[in-house]
Write a structure and sequence with these properties.
Elements (H helix, E strand, L loop, with lengths): L3 H17 L2 E2 H10 L21 H4 L1 H17 L6 E6 L5 H9 L6 H4 E6 L3 H10 L6 E3 L11 E6 L8 E6 L2 E9 L5 E7 L16 E4 L1 H17 L1 E10 L9 E4 L2 E3 L9 E3 L2 E2 H10 L3 E7 H7 L2 H11 L3 H15 L8 E8 L9
Parallel strand pairs: 2-3, 2-5, 3-4, 5-10, 10-14
Antiparallel strand pairs: 1-7, 6-7, 6-9, 7-8, 10-16, 11-12, 11-13, 15-16
This protein binds S-adenosyl-L-homocysteine.
S-adenosyl-L-homocysteine binds next to helix 3.
């Protein structure tokens, strides 16, 4: 059943298609997620058991603690600057940052040096973040252009890149075509194809008719801008997301509502839409800007390299009940096991200057 929000957004998008013609999948995704009034992220908290999906920081405090150690380490490698910008992209409930900050409070000079900045477009998420890290007085931005450019910069983002729009090409007998969202005779959303005149996809192997190629100019330009920033300002960036090491053919775009996969045409604005991140394309974009690229490595390896097992042991020793111990063990398994999030999720790092060598890779 569609909620009122979904009906409104569906009607708006249909009207737009009727007026200006079919839109590419990326434009559809951008509106479904980010429409200022009715977009998926705008009015809700999508995380947790009651929400549509759960993320690593919501599974266990250990995730944010490991990222905190990563940040403090790279800050020390940067020469422990007296002032720097810590920017989190898409902080969700603010849980990761709260755990990272708690874990680093004894790192001498670190908290005094950091100025916290959040990149976030959703009012609902901003409200949650404000509660989570109140005493750190963060500054919020809706785009990178307002983030100050006069200080060293450390950037993190968990499951942020996958929220940026993805476009889809399909191989036809006449070459590549782009998948568009149009309306059929009954006025329902449907896919259509238009000839694609851009550069051919950069994936290994020849594509057969029917093959799909997903690409995200939005992700590429975001990573490009981050790498320009860390070049100009000095610093490093860390992104964790699910996806493939290299560009490849295949379709991964999907919508999730209430922990179930649904069509991207159903529950518009009430379902999360995302696709695998192409880490190969991200690495290429960063290299082009002269950044050193680290990884991608599997999340399980990344967290193990940062010492998550030792941290789990400490927490288990301190646990008061058997149930608490088991929860810690379960969370560790979920984050790191290759059958769970450990292999599908990956970490990639970018750095600039002074031979920085980010931990975990
Ligand atoms: N990092 C969090 C949340 C991941 S969900 C976690 O791991 O739990 C994606 C987050 O990015 C949400 O906070 C969402 O509101 C935000 N977001 C989505 N699109 C965005 C955009 N274009 N600009 C800034 N933030 C965005």
């Amino acid at each position: 059943m569609l909620g009122v929000m979904a009906e409104k957004l569906e009607a708006l998008l249909k009207k737009q298609i009727q007026t200006t013609g079919p839109m590419n999948v990326g434009a559809f995704m951008a509106q479904a997620l980010g429409h200022p009034e009715h977009g998926y992220y705008m009015g809700r908290d999508p995380f947790g058991v009651a929400g549509d999906f759960t993320t690593a920081p919501e599974i266990s405090q250990m995730f944010g603690e490991m990222i905190g150690a990563w940040i403090a380490d790279i800050w020390a490698q940067m020469g422990a600057p007296k002032k720097f910008i810590l920017l989190e992209c898409g902080p969700g409930r603010g849980t990761l940052m709260a755990d990272a900050l708690r874990a680093t409070k004894n790192v001498r000079g670190f908290h005094a040096a950091l100025k916290l900045h959040f990149l976030e477009t959703s009012p609902a998420m901003k409200a949650a973040q404000e509660k989570a890290v109140q005493s750190y007085n963060p500054a919020w931005h809706e785009g990178l252009d307002t983030v100050p450019d006069d200080l060293p910069l450390i950037v993190i983002g968990n499951e942020f890149l996958d929220a940026l729009p993805v476009r889809q090409l399909q191989k036809t007998k006449n070459g590549w075509a782009e998948r568009m969202v149009g309306l059929n005779d009954s006025g329902d959303f449907c896919f259509s194809l238009v000839p694609y005149i851009g550069a051919a996809p950069d994936a290994p192997g020849a594509a057969a008719e029917g093959h799909i190629f997903e690409f995200s100019p939005a992700q590429v330009s975001f990573v490009t801008e981050i790498c320009r920033r860390i070049k100009r300002q000095g610093g490093a960036a860390l992104f964790i997301d699910y996806g493939e090491n290299e560009s490849k053919y295949g379709e991964s775009l999907q919508a999730i509502a209430d922990h179930k996969v649904v069509s991207i045409f159903d529950h518009v604005g009430e379902a999360d839409i995302s696709a695998n991140v192409d880490f190969g394309a991200m690495a290429q974009a960063a290299s082009k800007e002269g950044a050193a690229v680290f990884g991608p490595v599997a999340q399980g390896d990344f967290l193990n390299n940062l010492g998550i097992e030792q941290r789990a042991e400490v927490l288990m020793k301190a646990a008061k009940t058997q149930a608490q111990k088991e929860d810690i063990e379960k969370a560790l398994h979920r984050l790191c096991d290759s059958g769970e999030m450990g292999a599908m999720f990956k970490a990639i790092g970018f750095a600039h200057g002074k031979a920085l060598n980010p931990a975990g890779f």
